[in-house]
Predict the structure of DUF3221 domain-containing protein.
Amino acid sequence: MRKIHSAIALLLLSSFMAGCNQAKMETGDFIFDKQINQDKTPMIVVVQNISRNDASNHSLSDYLNNDDPNDVIYYHITDADLYEDLEIGERVTVTAPHILLSSPLQAMAIEVVRHDLAE
């Protein structure tokens, strides 16, 4: 009986750990759009903390009109080559020193880490 309990506990722990690892790898910040604003500044539009499935099956307006439109951030990109190379649907982590309290949120990107290239 003790072996059965140990086996069940091990199976549950393994399932929990696999679920945690999968969720960690599948969620992130995804580029939903690329735009040039009226000041001719390139921007990427990123939706934060969503799954890859959500990124594929929802539109930007879904996130701009949801209960927390602050999930959407417009990042100004100063490197024109990087802007051209970034792709809609790509998972990224963007570092920005300050988020402007505008609607939608905006920030100057100082670093963009591209996860899809590393995987």
User: Anything to note?
Assistant: The mean pLDDT is 80. The CA atoms of residues 71 and 108 lie 16 Å apart. The chain has one domain: 27-118. Helices lie at 2-26, 52-57, 60-64, 80-85, 115-118.
